[in-house]
Amino acid sequence: MILAGGLSTRLYPLTKTVPKPLVPVLGEPNAAHVIRYLKKYGFTEIATNVFYHKEAVRAALGDGSRFGVRLSYLDEPALTGSAGAVKMMERFFRDADPFVVIGCDDLTDLPLDALLDIHRERKAIATIGLVERDDVSEYGVVVLDERGKIVGFQEKPAPGTEMSRLVNTGVYVFSPAIFERIPTGEVYDFGKQVFPALQRDGAAFYGFEARGAYWCDIGTPGEYRRATDDLLTGAFAIPDVHPRGNVWIGSRTAIADDASVAGPSVIGDGVIVESGARIEHSIIWQDAVVERGAVVRDSIVGSAYRVPAGARLENAIVANDEA
Q: Shortest CA distance to 205 belongs to which of 268, 151, 156, 168?
C-alpha cells in the first residue's frame, strides 16, 4: 500500500493545487516512481489511499495498467492517519503475509527483498527499513539492540543527543497480526501509536539497516531539492529517466534562443522560457511561464505559475493558490 492521503502542508504553496502523490520528480509524479519501485520487486497488487485532490490522483495514475500493476483506491471521507488508512484496507490484505507499506513521498532503492527476508526470518509482526544519516536532527531516529530489535525512538533529536544514526524511512513490512493493534474507526498513526506500543510490549518488532541504500523523503522543500540534485548529478538514478547532463527538460517546452538554463535544473513539461530569461539551479513545474528577462535562481516555481517579466526570484518558492 502506498500512503498518499495527506495534505502535504510542508510543501505549501506548491501543493495547494497539486496533491502530494503527484509532486513531480524529473517530470513524473513521485507516486509513479514508487509504483515502479514496487513493481521491480514483484508487487503487482497495490492499493493507495486518496483524499486531497483525489480525482487528480486517479486521473494521473489510473488503474495502474500502464505500470504493469493493478491499482486499487481507498477514498477516505476524512483522514484517518497512516495506520487508520491501512486498517480500512484490511480486506485487501487478507491473503498477504507479509505486506509492504510505503509513503508516496519516498524516493529510494532500499532492497525490499532483503527487508522481506529479514521480516520472515525473525517472524516479525513489523519491520522498518532504516538508513544511516550523519545528521539526524530532522528525522525519526530508531534505536536497535544487538539482535536488530527496536528498543527506542527519538524524534528529531538535537545534535549531540542522538542515541542512533539510523532513521526511519517509512518503508514498512507487516504481518497480518498488525491489524489487531489498530482500532477500527479511529484516527491512528504508526509512528505515534502503533510503533511505541509494539516496543513497549516487547513484540517481534525489528529494524533492517539498509547499508548503502539511497533514501529521500521529498515531502519538504529542502529534501525535494536534494533528491532532484542527486538525480541530476548522478548520485542516484531512476530507471528510464535520463537527464541531459545536469539539466532535465520535459516535453512541449519552449526555451527562447537567448534564454539560458544552468544546472542542476528541471524544466517541466509545457514550460515556456521567454527571451532573455535566466534559470539557475531551479525546478520549474509543468506549464509555468518565465517571462522576458526574468531571473530564477535557487528557486522552485509551481505548476502554471507566471514569473513576471524582469522579476528576480532567488531562494524562493512560488505557486498559484488556486488552479
A: 151
**Which domains are assigned to the chain?**
2-222 (3.90.550.10), 243-318 (2.160.10.10)
**C-alpha to C-alpha distance for 28 and 211, rounded to whole angstroms:** 27
181-203: average pLDDT: 95
Looking at this protein, which amino acid is placed at residue 163?
A: M
Q: What does the CA dihedral 44, 46, 52, 57 come to, rounded to 10 degrees?
A: 20
Separation CA 165–CA 133 (nearest Å) = 6
Spacing of C-alpha 214 from chain mean position: 13
Q: Is the peptide bond before 21 cis (omega within 30 degrees of 0)?
A: no
For residues 156 and 90, give the distance between their C-alpha atoms in angstroms, rounded to a whole number: 31
Q: What is the pLDDT of residue 323?
A: 59
Q: What is the DSSP string of 30-45?
A: HHHHHHHHHHHTT--E
Which of 265, 246, 245 has the alpha carbon at shortest distance from 255?
265
pTM above 0.85, yes or no: yes
Least confident of 6-10, 108-112, 269-273: 6-10
Alpha-carbon span 260 to 278, nearest angstrom: 5
Amino acid present at 57: V
Contact status, residue 288 vs residue 304, Cβ threshold 8 Å: yes
Cα distance between residue 261 and residue 242, in whole Å: 17
